[in-house]
Design brief:
Radius of gyration: 17 Å
Number of strands: 9
Shape: globular
Number of helices: 9
Order of helices and strands: HHEEHHEHEHEHEHEHEE
Distance between the termini: 28 Å
C-alpha cells in the first residue's frame, strides 16, 4: 500500500460517514463538551500531504488549573499540537506496509494525531495516556478521520496496571511514542516497559525534538543492545512558534 492509497482511504472516511459512526462521534463530542469547549484544527502532515481534522480543547488555562493538584505533576500538555506527533504520524504513513494488520501500541497518545495515522495505515491500535480525557479525544479524532477507533487504556507507566500485561500476552509488533520524555526519572521505567511489551523482532518508534532526556534514553537503550536508525524532519509544523524545530524519529530494534 502506497501513500496515495492511504490518502484515498482517509479522504473516503471523511466524505462518507455511516449513521452509526456519526452517532458515536456525536456521543464523544457531547461527553467532551460537558467538560470544556472544543476547537477544530486542520493538521497537514508535511511529507505525505495528508490532512486531518483534529478536535482539541479550545483553552489551555482551565485544564492547567485543574491539573494543579495532580500527584504526579502531569500538566495537560497533551492538549497541544506537537511537532513530534506530526512527524511520527508522517513516518507511520510513509512506512505503512509495516503496519498493516499489526498490533501497535502508542504510549502517550495526546490528541491522537499519530494514532489516527496508525489506524489509517491498517494497524490494530491500542493507545495509552495518563489523562483519561486525552483518550476520549484520541478516539474522537481517529473516528472522525478514519471511521475507526483504537482501544484505549489509561496508563501511568511508572505504575502500569494489570490490564496492560494481559494485553501484552501477545507482544506488540510496534510501539509508538512521540515527545514523551521530559524527566530523567522516566528513562528506566519507559525502557523497561517497552522491553516487556514489544515482540522480539518488533520496533520502537520514538519521535523527539532533541531533549537531553531523550538522548539519555537512547544511550541507555544502546547500552542494552538496541540498534537505532534515526531520521530528521524539519516541518513545516502547525504552530509558527515551532518553526526551526528538528524532530528526530528513531527506529529502535533489539539485538537478535
Amino acid at each position: 500500500m502506497n501513500d496515495a492509497m492511504v490518502a484515498a482511504r482517509s479522504d473516503e472516511a471523511q466524505l462518507a460517514v455511516p449513521a452509526y459512526t456519526f452517532r458515536r462521534i456525536t456521543r464523544l463530542e457531547q461527553r467532551l463538551t460537558r467538560r470544556f469547549a472544543l476547537a477544530d484544527t486542520a493538521i497537514t502532515l508535511p511529507r505525505t500531504g495528508i490532512s486531518y481534522r483534529i478536535a482539541r480543547p479550545a483553552a489551555f488555562d482551565p485544564l492547567l488549573l485543574a491539573a494543579a493538584n495532580d500527584p504526579e505533576d502531569h500538566l495537560p500538555y497533551w492538549t497541544l499540537v506537537w511537532p513530534s506527533g506530526i512527524a511520527l504520524a508522517d513516518r507511520v504513513l510513509m512506512e505503512c506496509e509495516q503496519f498493516v494488520g499489526q498490533r501497535v501500541l502508542e504510549l502517550g497518545c495526546g490528541l491522537g494525531i499519530t494514532a489516527t495515522a496508525a489506524v489509517a495505515a491498517g494497524a490494530s491500535v491500542v493507545v495509552t495516556d495518563y489523562a483519561a480525557t486525552a483518550l476520549l479525544i484520541c478516539q474522537l479524532n481517529a473516528l472522525r478521520n478514519t471511521g475507526r477507533t483504537p482501544i484505549t487504556l489509561q496508563l501511568n507507566w511508572r505504575r502500569p496496571p494489570f490490564a496492560l500485561w494481559s494485553w501484552a500476552q501477545t507482544p506488540f509488533a510496534h510501539v509508538l511514542a512521540a515527545d514523551v520524555l521530559y524527566e530523567e526519572r522516566d528513562v528506566e521505567p519507559l525502557l523497561h516497559l517497552v522491553e516487556r511489551l514489544l515482540a522480539p523482532e518488533g520496533m520502537l518508534w520514538l519521535a523527539e525534538p532533541g531533549r537531553p532526556v531523550a538522548r539519555h534514553f537512547i544511550e541507555a537503550a544502546l547500552q542494552r543492545g538496541w540498534h537505532d536508525e534515526v531520521r530528521q524532519q524539519a516541518g513545516p509544523w502547525y504552530a509558527p512558534l515551532d518553526a526551526g524545530v528538528i524532530v528526530h524519529v528513531h527506529c529502535l530494534r533489539r539485538s537478535r
